[in-house]
Design brief:
This protein is mostly beta strands and 243 residues long. It folds into 2 domains: 12-96 and 125-139, no CATH class; 144-243. It has strands spanning 13-21, 24-35, 50-63, 68-87, 90-111, 114-129, 149-158, 163-172, 175-176, 184-185, 188-199, 202-209, 217-221, 225-228, 233-240. An 11-stranded antiparallel beta sheet has the order 1-2-3-4-5-6-7-8-11-12-15, with no helix packed on it. It has a two-stranded antiparallel sheet with strand order 9-10.
């Protein structure tokens, strides 16, 4: 990672854009971040500021009369002096962390009535320099809540008579709940479906969430308190416009 002097205390963002063709764009981006810390270290000393730098390169191409857009990007993010809470208002500081990955997304109107959005992301994150206040060396470990793979999709179709159907899904791969890689969330997928009908000022809708009733952990407090995700449920709604 960069030396301390290579992280300036001012922030900048540089964006270079090039339109190679009417429907094809290229871009490069570089930005830095600086975040003062107001808490204290284990030994009572002030925490050092957090510094970061990000590099990104990508392209966008439009087709089907520019109704659809395909975006791709690769990135690298480095951060130094991240903090981890030890409880009771005490923190320890991490030397440095790096994340590399890429993202791709296809979104737009396949037809005037059919909307589609599909995305995939890959992230490989690891600590470059991290020794805890208790002497445990975690350099090379994956940071908590950093899944390597994410997939999302949503689609909807609207008929001229006011009937619409929609679907959405998400997949998140396994992720660790602590930096020592001893507690792990399993990967999971969710599927939701819906249908609606609009007539005049009224809209009637039926939404099915987590159709497969997948059991998964949605969030956690530390590595011991785990909160389950929402099970399968059905919601019916009626909306009336007043104007």
């Amino acid at each position: 990672p960069p030396d301390e002097g290579e992280f300036p205390e001012f922030r900048h963002r540089v964006w270079l854009f090039y339109q190679a063709a009417p429907a094809y764009d290229l871009y490069l981006q570089n930005s830095t971040s600086f975040q003062p810390q107001y808490d204290v270290n284990v030994d009572g000393t002030p925490l050092d500021p957090e510094y970061g730098v990000q590099y990104e390169a990508g392209q966008r191409v439009r087709f089907l009369g520019e109704r659809l857009q395909l975006s791709n990007a690769v990135f690298q993010i480095e951060k130094r002096n991240l903090t981890r809470s030890l409880g009771a208002g005490i923190y320890e500081q991490i030397g440095s962390l790096r994340a590399r990955g890429f993202e791709t997304e296809l979104r737009g109107n396949v037809t005037p009535d059919w909307l589609l959005d599909v995305g995939y992301g890959f992230t490989a994150a690891s600590f470059l320099d991290y020794t805890t206040s208790r002497g445990a060396v975690l350099s090379g470990n994956t940071p908590r809540r950093s899944p390597r793979h994410t997939v999302t999709f949503s689609t909807s179709y609207l008929w001229p008579n006011g009937l619409a159907v929609m679907g959405a899904g998400q997949y998140i791969s396994a992720q660790f709940l602590n930096d020592s890689e001893t507690v792990e969330f399993n990967g999971y997928e969710r599927l939701s479906l819906g249908v609606s009908y609009t007539r005049g000022r009224a809209q009637y809708a039926l939404n099915l969430t987590n159709v497969t009733n997948t059991a998964y952990w949605q969030s956690s407090l530390g590595s011991r308190q785990l909160y389950p995700g929402e099970p399968f449920n059905v919601m019916a709604t009626v909306r009336i416009r007043t104007n």
